[in-house]
Amino acid sequence: MKTCEREHERGGSTGRFLEGFFVGGLVGAGIALLLAPRSGAETRQVIEERALELQERTKETAEQARLQARQVGDQVAESAKHVLETARATAEEARSEAEHVGRQLSESAKQVQQKVEETAEDAGSEAKQVGHDVAQSARRVRKG
Predict the structure, then answer these.
(1) 29 to each of 40, 46, 51, 135, 141, how far by Cα in Å?
(2) Inter-residue contact 4 to 76 (CB < 8 Å)
(3) Per-residue pLDDT, 77
(4) What does DSSP assign to residue 144?
(5) pLDDT of 5 above 80
(6) Separation in Å, CA 91 to CA 34, 67, 78, 81, 105
(7) Coil, strand, or helix at residue 87?
(8) pLDDT in tens, 38-53
(9) How far apart are CA 136 and CA 128, in angstroms?
(10) What is the pLDDT of residue 106?
(11) What is the rounded CA–CA span in Å between residue 93 and residue 91?
(12) What residues contact 25, with CB distance under 8 A and at least 6 apart?
C-alpha cells in the first residue's frame, strides 16, 4: 500500500515538475532575450530555437510521465491480483479447516451421546438391582 502511495505522490510531483519546468523555461528564455546583444532577426531566431527545444523537452517529459503512470497502473493491477489470489487461498483454507472442525465436533458429539446412553443403561441396571435388594431386605424384615 505504501508503494502505491509513493507512486501516487510521484504522479503528483510529476505535475509540479512539469509546471516548474515550463515556468523555468519561460523565465530563462526571457532573461536570455533581455541580456542578449543581438539584432531583432537574431533574437527571433533564438526565441524560435528555444521554443522548439522547450516543446521537444515538454514532449519527452510528458511521455516519461505517461510511461510512469502506465507502470504504476500495471503495478497496482499486479498487486490487486496478488491480494485477490491470497484472499481466495486463505478463504479456501478457512473453509477446509471449518469442515475438518465440523467433522471432529460431530464425531465427538456421537461419542458423548454413546457414553450418555451407556451410562443411562448402567444407571437403570443399578437402579433395578438396588430395587431388587431393597425388596429382598424388606421381605426378610417382615419374616423375621
Answers:
(1) 15, 9, 8, 124, 131
(2) yes
(3) 96
(4) -
(5) no
(6) 70, 36, 20, 15, 21
(7) helix
(8) 677 887 887 788 888 8
(9) 12
(10) 93
(11) 5
(12) 50, 54, 57
% of the chain residues with pLDDT over 70: 86
Provide the residue count of the chain. 144
The cell numbers describing 138, all together, are 424388606
The single residue listed with the C-alpha cell 505535475 is 15
Q: Which residue has the higher pLDDT, 3 or 80?
A: 80
Amino acid at 59: K
Q: Is the dihedral of CA 91, 93, 94, 100 positive or negative?
A: positive
Integer angstrom CA distances of residue 35 from 28, 38, 43, 46, 121: 11, 9, 11, 12, 114
Across all residues in the chain, what is the average pLDDT?
A: 83
Closest CA to 1 of 80, 84, 91: 80
Single-letter residue type at 52: L
List the one residue out of 14, 9, 13 whose CA is nearest residue 63: 14
Q: Which residue has the higher pLDDT, 9 or 46?
A: 46
